[in-house]
Amino acid sequence: MREIEVQADARFHPGGIALEGDALWIPVAEYRAHSSSVIERRSKRTLALESQFEVADHIGCIAASPDFLIGGNWDSKEFYVWNRQGQLIRKVPNATGNAYQDMKFAAGEIVASGKLADGEGAIDWLALPSFQLRRRVMAGKNDRGVLYTREGMAIRGNQLILLPEDGPSRLFMFDLSLRK
Question: How many CB atoms lie within 10 A of CB 177?
Answer without folding.
Answer: 9
